[in-house]
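Section 5: illustrative case.
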């Protein structure tokens, strides 16, 4: 994925596709579900996956609504893998059972994410640790794919300490954990209060893989403080959102732009979206689009980006020693004695500056 992202900007890194808009829950802050929609027919979904693969998409995420309500979900995962893309799933977890997890293994799922909003159900959300903990234990026992638990901070979350507890539980089961910040209905920032900022920083302090997005958190740390980010959103090019009607949108919160049928979406549309400046960018909270921007930042400024990741991690943990591969990259690209030669090699291999 990394090498492909470095090689060219003329293909999507990540596409989120909706196989069903219906959800079995009704979270108060959510504008991405309904209670009635039927599943998108399997043949149509397979055609959409083939089209995303033809556009060169590296990661295809099945989202919703609740994607586990789609009767052909395993077939969709198989087709994503067959077409050489990475298959990922975002679910509320309610429908997971040991047998359902084993079916996801057999289908070839690469990665699953569950968002947990609180410790106990309330009127805002029933995505709660005490309801889902058994599902998490089943995942720890049976899943052959990676699992990330996302805990959420924001004004409608009653007890911010829950997010820290959820992150600790995720780590204790061997999963990754991330912290998301709730956005309004156009993907825009709702600044956090001080107790929430402090919980957010404690979650980051739990550490994790060096290249996890948490350690290149310039987006999230500005967002948590209500500050704008200076970045170029490449949604519509490096990130696509495909709704249940098969239309391409910039993201889940900017539906209607550009709303071109996926079957007609072309490299020319990707080029146009790559250049377009989006007015919603400074206060955007859509972290999966930030993550694709982080990869493009590697592509355009590899030395500066790697140096920034190492500096942030060391600022948080002065004892931190990068793993051997990162030390090698550091020597190859950041040390004055070797960086010129390896920089030229990277230019040749990946076409990066
Ligand atoms: S579970 Fe997810 S899709 Fe369903 S209502 Fe809640 S946030 Fe929305
Ligand atoms: S900046 Fe990009 S990702 Fe964020 S809301 Fe706007 S179009 Fe969506």
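Designed sequence:
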């Amino acid at each position: 994925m990394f090498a492909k992202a470095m090689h060219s900007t003329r293909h999507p890194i990540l596409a989120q596709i909706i196989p069903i808009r219906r959800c079995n829950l009704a979270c108060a802050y959510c504008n991405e579900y309904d209670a009635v929609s039927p599943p998108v027919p399997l043949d149509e979904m397979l055609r959409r996956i083939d089209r995303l693969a033809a556009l060169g998409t590296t990661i295809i995420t099945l989202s919703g609504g609740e994607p586990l309500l789609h009767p052909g979900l395993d077939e969709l995962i198989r087709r994503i893998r067959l077409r050489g893309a990475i298959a990922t799933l975002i679910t509320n977890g309610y429908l997971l059972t040991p047998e359902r997890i084993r079916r996801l293994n057999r289908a070839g799922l690469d990665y699953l994410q569950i968002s947990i909003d609180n410790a106990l159900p309330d009127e805002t959300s029933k995505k709660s640790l005490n309801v889902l903990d058994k599902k998490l234990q089943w995942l720890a026992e049976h899943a052959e794919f990676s699992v990330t638990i996302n805990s959420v901070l924001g004004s409608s979350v009653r007890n911010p300490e829950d997010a820290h507890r959820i992150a600790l539980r995720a780590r204790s089961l061997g999963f990754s954990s991330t912290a998301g910040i709730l956005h309004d209905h156009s993907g825009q920032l709702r600044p956090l209060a001080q107790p929430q900022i402090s919980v957010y920083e404690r979650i980051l302090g739990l550490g994790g893989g060096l290249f996890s997005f948490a350690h290149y958190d310039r987006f999230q740390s500005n967002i948590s403080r209500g500050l704008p980010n200076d970045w170029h959103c490449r949604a519509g090019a490096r990130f696509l959102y495909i709704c249940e009607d098969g239309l391409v949108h910039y993201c889940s919160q900017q539906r209607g732009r550009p709303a071109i049928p996926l079957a007609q979406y072309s490299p020319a549309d990707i080029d146009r979206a790559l250049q377009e400046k989006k007015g919603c960018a400074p206060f955007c909270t859509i972290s999966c689009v930030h993550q694709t921007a982080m990869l493009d930042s590697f592509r355009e400024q590899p030395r500066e980006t790697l140096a920034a990741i190492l500096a942030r991690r060391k600022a948080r943990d002065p004892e931190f020693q990068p793993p051997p591969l990162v030390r090698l990259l550091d020597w190859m690209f950041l040390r004055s004695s070797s960086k010129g030669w390896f920089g030229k090699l990277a230019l040749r291999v990946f076409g990066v500056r």
